[in-house]
Amino acid sequence: MPFFPRVLLLIALLATTPGVRGADLLVRNVNGYTLDRHGQLQHFQALLVDQGKVVATGNVAELAKRAGNARVVDGHGDTLLPGLTDSHGHVMQLGRIRNQIDLSQTSSLAQALAAVKVYANAQPDTAWIRGGGWNQELWKLGRFPTAQELDTAVANRPVWLERIDGHSGWANSAAMKRAGITRETRDPPGGRIERDAAGKPTGVFVDAAAALIDSKIPLPTASEQAAALDTALAELARLGITSVDDPGIDLATYQLYRQYADAHKLTARIYALIHNTGADFDTVSQHGPLIGYGGDFLTVRGVKLFADGALGSRGAAMLAPYSDDPANSGTLFQTPAELTAMIGKALGKGYQVAIHAIGDRANREVLDGFEAAYKQHGGENLRNRVEHAQIVSPQDFPRFVSLHLIASMQPVHATSDMNMAEERIGRQRILGAYAWQRFLKQGTMIVGGSDFPFDADNPFDGLHAAVTRQDHHNLPAGGWYPAQDMTLLQAFRAYTLDAAWASYHEQSLGTLEPGKWADFILIDRDIFKNAPQDLWKTRVLQTWVGGKQVYAAHD
After folding, report:
1. What is the pLDDT, as a whole number, of residue 11?
2. Cα–Cα nearest to 411, from 493, 512, 486
3. Alpha-carbon torsion (476, 477, 478, 481), positive or negative
4. What beta strand segments (E) does 143-190 contain?
């Protein structure tokens, strides 16, 4: 090549090399923290960004020299962190619940019924009264609520309210009548209708039985779907969640996400997992996984399956009966052969598989299913996951390592469930429950999430629960089974670096290293120096995604 063209080529290369060209954003005067690729905590005072990606972190004087005519943002000494990832959050459900009635803060049945009545009176033209978040354990009922009780709040319109875990629902008599529920209605496979001593349905439908009511509710309109997504995205930005793994989307949600990505309306990066391997999976997967769509805002390369229900409604599948319900061992959602076939179908098309498993029997079935599917289809390298991995038999922990599985766990589940978990499964089995350190010490990766909206969606609640295993009143003293506490660094890694790896984003997200997306948050305290008991009090001041501000707190 002649000399002159070589010079031009060199100049062009230098102009596009990070750290050599200028930048368009300098965030200065911050108390910055990020992990590096080895998981070591790094500290910095300034962040340099160009075209939405990190150019460098370092001290203010050095980066100011390289900033050129970049816009300068003063961080006022606030703490700057990489944007947090919720590795298990249901985006559309979050938006819908925020637009419906939320019973998660009610402390009694009477309070919940009053809230439903007020909401219904304020929505006179709404055909179905919808909502959720109720928890009979917090109400100290010692039982499920009934349709007759719900009728005292609303009798003239159908009401359907999901339990806090999303694995059961509470209907009034009008809803059951609309669905044709009678004493003769049978429990569907994988579900249970709560009944009185005479066999009459009482109003609560567990797991697959919930579909008996759900199927009668009109599908949301396009405008209702968009409103739900808008609400959810605003909430995520407020919480400092810049990426979310959304487990179990349907075809309509997939299409809506693509529309938002095309219109540049996504303000959080979504890694979506398709619900099951049925017709929706067949349609979505026709051209293989969708990777980095819309400027790296949408990736669809996973499948979400379910093995069992939830602990609170005693739908989690246990190897032995429940300690507080000796006639019940929970519910498996399919046979081992069926589960293995679904895993194999997804792996065969190159999709990561994530499976909901709460009980020790369900976790064993999932482990057996992966082992059998690997022998037939391979796929050990697809970063497969067990969602929740909540109660595991001691002999099954090592299999997570041999089967190359990620434990996708939600620290808030431990603090939400500690009021009833030991009562459900007894002192021996509880030692294999919410066992974060047991997984970490054997080398199993844990990624952190919340399971919103079925539990607290604030990631700082999750970090607090992971580190203290206490509620917001610092109870129980010393933490609930504190041997399983995470260190703050371990918990922080679960919501950043490792969360990115679990969704195939380790080259672009999870840390603020050069070349990665400038997804970051400013918060009101130094979480690495303040008391762990105050982690949940952390307030997000600003949220930035791809070098653009998507949220600012208003004092």
Report:
1. 40
2. 486
3. negative
4. 159-163, 168-171
Contacts of 362 (CB under 8 A, 6+ apart): 307, 308, 316, 317, 330, 332
Q: What distance in Å separates the CA atoms of residue 22 and residue 49, rounded to the nearest whole number?
A: 9
User: What does the alpha-carbon distance between residue 249 and residue 91 come to, in Å, rounded to a whole number?
Assistant: 9
Asked if residue 405 lies in contact with residue 370, where contact means CB atoms within 8 angstroms, the answer is yes
Instruction: Please report the beta strands in 17-158, taking only residues with DSSP state E, as ranges in sequence order.
Output: 25-28, 31-35, 41-44, 46-50, 53-58, 71-74, 79-82, 84-86, 101-102, 129-134
What six digits make up the tokens of 355?
């499976």
* Rounded to 5°, angle at Cα 343 from 340 and 346: 150
The residues of the chain scoring below 70 in pLDDT are: 1-21, 555
Q: Is-contact 499 382, C-beta < 8 A?
A: no
Give the per-residue pLDDT at 17: 43
Distances (CA, A) of 215 to 167, 251, 286, 295, 536: 15, 17, 27, 36, 38
Interatomic CA distance for residues 86 and 458, integer angstroms:
9
Per-residue pLDDT reduced to its tens digit, 7-53:
444 444 444 444 445 799 999 999 999 999 999 999 999 999 999 99
What pLDDT does 21 receive? 54
Average pLDDT, the chain: 94
State the residue for tokens 């050990």: 380
How distant, in Å, are the alpha carbons of 33, 47, 463, 533 from that of 529? 12, 21, 14, 12
Express each pLDDT in 277-310 by its tens digit: 999 999 999 999 999 999 999 999 999 999 999 9
Is 13 in a helix, a strand, or coil?
helix
Q: Which of 410, 425, 396, 388 is nearest to 461 (CA)?
A: 410
Backbone region of residue 51 per phi and psi (left: phi > 0; alpha: psi in -120 to 50; beta: other values): left
Residue 139: DSSP 8-state: T
Domains, the chain, ranges and CATH? 93-214 (3.10.310.70), 222-508 (3.20.20.140)
**CA angle (349, 269, 504) in 5-degree steps:** 40
Question: Can you give the pTM of this predicted structure?
Answer: 0.87
